[in-house]
Every structure is written in structure tokens, then in C-alpha cells.
Design the sequence.
């Protein structure tokens, strides 16, 4: 599925590449920055799976948050 993005200079980017989408994000949160860096590393090393890294990482983060809330 293609996604249409508006880049920082006002241009339109149409892509289905998760890494291309992440390159356009401007994030300040340290965990979000780490997730994007993991995705970039995945793309450099393997050439695919960037979206999977984000989905799996978010699942792990959500699971950890749930456990912390339950036991606090």
C-alpha cells in the first residue's frame, strides 16, 4: 500500500518503504529516535524489514509497559 507524505520542504513523497517514511519524521523522544535508528540499521544491513522492526519493537515496549503497570 502506497503512502503519500509531505516532506519538510513541502514536496510530496509517495512510497511504500517504511524506512523512507521514517526518514521524513522529526522526533524528539529518545525511544522513538532509537527505534528509527534500529530500523535504519536493519535497512542498511539487510535491505528489508524496517517496518517489522518498528512493529516488533512497539509490541515489546507495550508488553513491558503493561507488566510495569500491573505490578506497580
Sequence:
Amino acid at each position: 500500500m502506497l503512502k503519500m507524505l509531505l516532506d519538510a520542504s513541502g514536496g510530496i513523497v509517495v512510497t511504500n518503504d517504511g524506512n523512507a517514511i521514517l526518514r521524513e519524521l522529526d522526533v524528539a523522544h529518545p525511544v522513538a529516535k532509537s527505534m528509527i535508528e534500529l530500523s535504519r540499521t536493519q535497512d542498511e544491513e539487510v535491505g528489508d524489514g524496517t517496518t517489522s522492526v518498528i512493529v516488533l519493537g512497539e509490541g515489546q515496549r507495550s508488553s513491558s509497559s503493561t507488566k510495569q503497570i500491573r505490578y506497580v
User: Anything to note?
Assistant: The mean pLDDT is 76. Strands lie at 3-6, 12-15. DSSP finds three helices and two strands in the chain.
